[in-house]
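LOG
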Amino acid sequence: MSTATPTDEIYERYLRKAISEINELQHELLAIADETHVPVLGSGHPLADIFLLKHTPQQAEIAEGVAFFGRSGNALLKSLQRLDVDPLGIYGTNCLKFGTEDNTQATPWLTRELHIVQPKLLIVMGDASTCFLDGLEFPLADPLGGLEMGVLHRFTPTIEAIVTPDIDGALDDQAAKTAFWNAFKALGPWWAELPPY
């Protein structure tokens, strides 16, 4: 007589695998680092429902080696709180891990992150991130360039996407900040409809 594996146990297996794969990717990035090129690593839950993506790490992120560290991370945390979105359901990263590499070098790293995390929603911040993502040629993906911001779009059969303005460019200009918020707040209704595990 066979018994079914409980859902919690299956999830724990996927989580252990995701943690292992994220750690392996981070070790590979650290292995090619040097004193002048330190990688900015993705951060958050390795099986997050929401995957935040921006293009280039800022100085605070480079100094700490962590994506969304500093002003953009603080702004996002406030926005998530305003939308009542659990920050533990988030994973965030940059397209460029060092901020100096070309797209060809960085493409496989982001592709791996997307395959590991397997998010349900991708929030793509800015035109540069959208172009980079479209250049991945991710399996079964629809291009996101030129689509309306702040609207839910299909990215793949299992991942939806919301395109927003670049958060780093929105921090010092009120009109840009408003434009970012108006697009980003589409996350709230999506999160509210997400079924519990």
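LOG (cont.) second protein
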Amino acid sequence: MKYSETTLRVRYKDTDQMGVVYYANYFIWFEVGRSEFFRSLGMSYKYLEQNGILLPVIETYCSYKYPARYDELLKIVTRLHSLEVVKLGFQYEIMNVETEKLLARGETTHAFVNKQGKPVVLRKQNPFLWRLIKDKLQVKKEI
């Protein structure tokens, strides 16, 4: 399965008074991972939007294993785990680069919608884009 990796450093503003990362920041980091995932394929969210496809989050999940702390360098591993006619799903792992400890694992599911927010069947709306994603991502689960 195709995946991408990116790193980021925990900023002070991402933490609470104890220096521990606020839980909702992991979802922001999932977005960072997704953006870099698409870039690694030679496209971007901007490209999708210019082609009339938006990807709102319709489901999300995160399991926290250990806290991330201020100034730690983190690695975000992002994988596409499903591609369906009207949605796709990603899995994430966030790890401390120095200790290689898994800090969090999560998932997001996104719908394909047009600019009016109506669901679209990507394979019909934009066959070229559908093939591009399907071929480059080598997804095993497709419906």
